[in-house]
């Protein structure tokens, strides 16, 4: 089974086969055009969540497990927002790798085009954690996504470091982005960028006012600001 993700920017993602640890051997093809430089960004208003989409995937297990994942996750997410749709993706034979397993990937999209993602998967065979229950995995994925929504910002906690890297490598202009509380990984990543790129970010806490407190907009947000180093990509397209 193949899945395609196409955009106006020429990005293409093909999930040729899925695999689960420890012997998954999944295969993903990613293709994107060459960019000479990165533009500075001003991403300070993520907007409200408008819909949630997801994929429940299974490999070398009963296809009914995917439906159980969907039902468990939607039982929680529908209490938050009505526009929830989760696809099922079942792989068999060579496209399923050598290890059985299942999982659920969820993405919340905001009015202003930002995405917050979360994922949960079953325990790999031989991990010592015992077999996973589909309903527990589905509920865990839903709660992880709601935690990202509570944290808020333009990117989720897993992609904060990537956003900071793109800002640092951009043109010599000011870039700003709004995120939720910084994860431990992001804080360590900022220290590494100071050591390797000699760039420092300005961090400001955006506290909520009384009106926002009543709206229950989640935690206090962080505004990260930096001036890019003007990195230029010298690579050429592969014929």
TrEMBL record:
Tell me where it resides. Answer: Nucleus, Nucleolus
Report the Pfam families cross-referenced here.
Answer: RTC, RTC_insert
Q: What keywords does the record list, in alphabetical order?
A: Nucleus, Ribosome biogenesis
- Domain RNA 3'-terminal phosphate cyclase insert intervals: 45-149
Q: What is its main location?
A: nucleus
Question: Is the keyword Transmembrane assigned to this protein?
Answer: no
User: Where is each RNA 3'-terminal phosphate cyclase domain found?
Assistant: 8-202
Family that this chain belongs to: Belongs to the RNA 3'-terminal cyclase family. Type 2 subfamily.
Q: What is the protein name for this chain? A: RNA 3'-terminal phosphate cyclase-like protein
Task: Tell me what gene encodes this.
Answer: LOC106465067
């Amino acid at each position: 089974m193949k899945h395609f993700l196409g955009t106006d920017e020429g990005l293409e993602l093909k999930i040729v086969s899925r695999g689960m640890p420890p012997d998954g051997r999944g295969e993903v093809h990613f293709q994107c055009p060459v960019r000479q430089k990165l533009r500075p960004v001003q991403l300070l208003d993520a907007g409200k969540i408008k819909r949630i989409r997801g994929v429940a995937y299974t490999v070398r297990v009963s296809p009914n497990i995917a439906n159980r994942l969907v039902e468990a996750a939607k039982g929680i997410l529908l209490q938050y927002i009505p526009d929830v749709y989760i696809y099922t993706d079942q792989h068999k034979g060579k496209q399923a790798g050598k290890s059985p397993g299942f999982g659920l990937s969820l993405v919340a999209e905001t009015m202003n085009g930002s995405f917050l993602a979360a994922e949960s998967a079953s325990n790999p065979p031989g991990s010592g954690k015992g077999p996973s229950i589909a309903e527990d995995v589905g509920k865990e994925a839903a709660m992880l996504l709601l935690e990202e929504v509570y944290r808020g910002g333009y990117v989720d906690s897993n992609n904060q470091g990537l956003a900071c890297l793109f800002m640092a490598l951009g043109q010599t202009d000011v870039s700003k982005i709004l995120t939720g509380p910084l994860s431990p990984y992001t804080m360590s990543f900022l220290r590494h960028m100071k050591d390797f790129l000699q760039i420092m970010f300005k961090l400001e806490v955006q506290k909520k006012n009384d009106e926002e407190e009543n709206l229950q907009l989640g935690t206090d947000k962080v505004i990260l600001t930096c001036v890019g180093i003007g990195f230029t990509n010298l690579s050429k397209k592969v014929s």
